Amino acid sequence: MAFVVKSPLSTSHASWRQQNNLLNPISDLKIAKRVADRFRYRVPSVRKFVASMASTQVQSSPPTVPSKSVGIPIMVNGCTGKMGRAVLEAAMAAGLNPVPVALGGPEDAGKILDFGGKQVEVHGPSDRESVLSSALNDHPNLIVVDYTVPAAVNDNATLYCKVGVPFVMGTTGGDRELLYKTVADSKVYAVISPQMGKQVVAFLAAMEIMAEQFPGAFSGYNLQVMESHQASKLDISGTAKAVISCFQKLGASFELEQVQQIRDPKLQVEMVGVPEEHLSGHAFHMYHLTSPDGTVSFEFQHNVCGRSIYAEGTVDAVLFLAKKVSSNADKRIYDMIDVLREGNMR
């Protein structure tokens, strides 16, 4: 039996499979020449069952401006980066109110950025606590959004908890166990998620349900993982880590060091099939499972072009968190699955 979970992909994915010996000896993998064509595994004398479950390349629509301003004050730390900029633009379109200050690295200190007529001054590490405290004093219902760098995750979370400001942690990396402990000890409200794209989060939720209900279902299977992101992304994708964790619970043996990270633009175009116009912002993930005897293969794939899917999800997380703070909810630490379950997304 061959069970393939698939989505449209470019012919260039074939080279990745060949390099990683994914064409098993009794299967004839035929990939059509057109980008939108699908692939099939042919197993002689074995009935095949093919299911489609993954998404195509995703490009979110521009955000819709609400009829009434929400007015929630937000501070987007890391706003000099592309993700931070995308969040600020989406937040303003949704009626949120960026405060005129933000935190950044020493190289960004003193920069003044303009977002739709609103100016934001970036402050470096030396005065970050006083700047954040002052902003919270001026805006008591302030929500912080963090899109900085992995190395700053834990220090930033410690600062937010010390000052007592609710935050959305969109930055991946850092010591995640310490991150959760820091927030739990402080009683500060936070949304922490390695993935802010709502549709991808729904896929992750499905994976977690499968892992919980069918542990060991893929025992003995070989797992191979490829993820491609813009060259500026330094760490392994948090989404990939979460999916891999689910596959491990399902019985597949795999270590994070085995993830094939693609950051070379030439390889991204020729081997992965990333459109050139999205080399500076994309997330292509492929998870390939093969049975011990090579007769069964599964493939999960999700491709995202651009950053709007994450920016829109981050805005929903801010709105969700503001609601939890105002209602004095008992639970303090949330993730994007909680945001999805709330069902009040725009």
TrEMBL record:
Its main location: plastid. Residues 72-196 form the Dihydrodipicolinate reductase N-terminal domain. Keywords: Amino-acid biosynthesis, Chloroplast, Diaminopimelate biosynthesis, Lysine biosynthesis, NAD, NADP, Oxidoreductase, Plastid, Transit peptide. CDD domains: DHDPR_N (cd02274). NCBIfam families: dapB_plant. It comes from Sesamum indicum. Pathway: Amino-acid biosynthesis; L-lysine biosynthesis via DAP pathway; (S)-tetrahydrodipicolinate from L-aspartate: step 4/4. Pfam families: DapB_C (PF05173), DapB_N (PF01113). It is an enzyme of class 1 (oxidoreductase). The lineage of its organism: Eukaryota, Viridiplantae, Streptophyta, Embryophyta, Tracheophyta. GO terms for biological process: diaminopimelate biosynthetic process; lysine biosynthetic process via diaminopimelate. This is 4-hydroxy-tetrahydrodipicolinate reductase.
